Amino acid sequence: MLYNLTILIPLYCWNQDMDKPDSERSKVKVAVRQRPFLHSSEREEPCLRILDKQSVSIMNYRDRRESVVYSFDWCYGPDNSQQELYEEAVKPELSHVLRGQNASVFAYGPTGTGKTYTMVGTSGNPGVIPRAVGDLLHASQATAQTKLWAVCISISYLEIYQEKVRDLLDTNKQDLPIRQDRNGAILVPGLTERVVDSYAQFERIFMAASRHRMTASTQLNHTSSRSHSLLMLRVVKTEQVTPFRRFFGKLHLVDLAGSEDNRRTGNSGVRLKESGSINSSLFALSKVVDALNQGFTFVPYRESKLTRLLQDSLGGSAHTVMVTNLAPEQHFLFDSTSALNFASKSKLVVNRPLTLQSQQPVMKRRLSNNDGELGRNATLATALGAENTSLIGPLLKQQKTFQMEVWERLESIERLVSHGNVQPVGLARNALKERNQQQCQPLKCGSNLMGVQPGTAGGDSMPVGVIAPFGQPRDVHPNAFLPTAVCDSEGSVKVYEAVDSNALHFNEKQKQLVLDILNHGNVRQLKALQKVGEKRAKLIISWREEHGPFTEMEDLTKVEGLTSKVVNSFWTANVMCNM
Fold first, then answer.
1. Angle, alpha carbons 210-216-217 (nearest 5°)
2. The pLDDT value given to residue 321
3. What confidence score (pLDDT) does residue 348 get?
4. What does 195-222 look like in DSSP terms, one character per residue?
5. pLDDT at 147
6. pLDDT at res. 375
7. Which residues is 235 bridged to in the sheet?
8. Quick one: DSSP state of residue 110?
9. Which of 19, 170, 191, 496 could make a disulfide contact with 484, Cβ separation 3.0–4.6 Å?
């Protein structure tokens, strides 16, 4: 008997994204469903009662003279039909799938409370899965009749049995992996996917696959599910007219196995092992919900295959509805209380749905006549044809960016040594200009881009475009005309003149430059050398303070920890690579 003394439990959740618009957030919706008594001859008071469409009252298992009231989005009693639950709680979510978003519906509750009946139903009274698939197929056929859209629906069906993902459409696939793509979506590689065009085809495939699901008899349920099942519907909606958009939506319909008390189910042997796996995955699911509600940076999705597959549904990018199934018998009081507590936490989880959409990309771009060097080559691009335009444009832009970076580096070096002799910088700049002028050769237009050869146009005709070669000539070093400035320990600046890489004395100058850095550079300057980290830089400074400057590269072998092999590698990285 329920007394009038009622405890109202307020539930609070700190939301860090309250400043975002509601359109970007979608809380998990929770529906509670109470099944009727299984044994009507037993006259006992129910441990819970549906008060109204959004409230349920249950006995306080600590003090049965009190009751606890919970509030949810929907509450259904034994008199409410399958149709009512589906029309109010599930059907509105199907519109999101057709708009390119993900949706998820899963049944939760203790064993023997009617989860499979809610999700699958019977032939005379179908549940959520057949009704949702039928409505999606009907909506896709109605959309296709407009001639503006084409809709393709495919299904996949799996179960998680003892932490192994089994393909129910192909029983040969017994232990499939779970992966995450670069966009963060969860997927199962190798999972069978079949296209369905009609409800009759779906029913034939689904009924055959359902017979492969693991079920067994216990003391509480003669057809107890020994695994979690997941039916995935993938909806691709393609626009038949410009701009040819495509929407990708998914609907996950999950029938969870119920939590079990082995003292009442009488499980032993294999049944006991199955029960342990089920309870472990449901406990991991509870930890995920707790982590999301408390705002933890780490959410333990990977602790279970179940939570990994439900990652999009809880705290992810899907619209989610959870149907919590309850039993009214007194011996289900503790299990029902635990299920209601979990449902109360779950309704506070916030998802952020995303619309997965693609459209036909722009394949051609025109070159602007007012875009500097690109504009000067617009005539050449037109002559070569629109097909080759997309190849030349990015290369010209890359060459222009490269030259700008070179000028910026020269100007920064000139500012660095502005108090001293700037003649090396000016020489380097003039040399770079002269090299560019020598490399820039006119191109003669041909019918094919691969047939364009450097040289002048034939006869007296004018060249139609000039493109500088992008690769480095073999006889010119990339740093041949760039001066180098190094600060010594006293703060003065040494500027090494730019030299030709083919000169015989280049090796000696490069070697002298490295030795100057070893003898006068600080830790930061030493770390700029190849093969030198902070530890080696400090060892080099300690050695030269005690023994004096380095005279030869071989002196590095005297530093503690620098073997001859390390010194040879240092020589190759800092001197030989620039020869």
1. 135
2. 95
3. 92
4. EE-SHHHHHHHHHHHHTTS-EE--SS-T
5. 82
6. 41
7. 153, 249
8. B
9. 496
Q: What is the DSSP letter of 88?
A: I
Task: Give the annotated binding-site residues.
Answer: 109-116
Residue with tokens 């029309």: 87
Q: What angle do CA 441, 442, 448 make, to 5 degrees?
A: 115
Cα gap 429→431, rounded to integer Å: 5
Pick from 53, 146, 131, 140: which is nearest to 92 by CA?
Answer: 131
Residues composing the chain? 579
pLDDT in tens, 49-60: 999 999 999 998
Amino acid at 516: D
How far apart are the two ends of the chain, measured CA to CA in Å?
Answer: 94
Q: pTM for the complete prediction? A: 0.59
Looking at domain 6-358, its CATH class is: alpha beta
Q: What string of DSSP letters covers 282-327?
A: HHHHHHHHHHHHTT-S---GGG-HHHHHTTTTSSSSEEEEEEEEE-
User: Residues 99, 109: contact at Cβ < 8 Å?
Assistant: no
* Distant-in-sequence contacts of 422-427, Cβ < 8 A, 24+ apart: 424/483, 424/495, 424/496, 424/497, 424/498, 425/483, 425/495, 427/481, 427/497, 427/498
Alpha-carbon span 315 to 291, nearest angstrom: 10
Rounded Cα distance, 131 and 341, in Å: 29
Q: Taking the CB of residue 563, how many other CB atoms lie within 10 A of it?
A: 11
CATH topology of domain 504-579: DNA polymerase; domain 1 (1.10.150)
Which residue type occupies 72? Answer: F
**DSSP H or E stretch at residue 187:** strand 186-187
Q: What residues form the annotated binding site for ATP? A: 109-116
- Residue ranges of domains in the chain: 6-358, 377-476, 504-579
Indicate the DSSP class of residue 24. G
State whether the Cα torsion 563-565-569-575 is positive or negative: positive
Tens digits of residue pLDDT in 16-55: 333 343 446 889 999 999 998 876 545 678 899 999 999 9
129-147 in b/e form (b: 16+ CB < 10 A) is bbbbbeebbebbeeeeeee
Q: Which residues of the chain have pLDDT under 50?
A: 1-23, 41, 362-391, 419-422, 441-506, 578-579
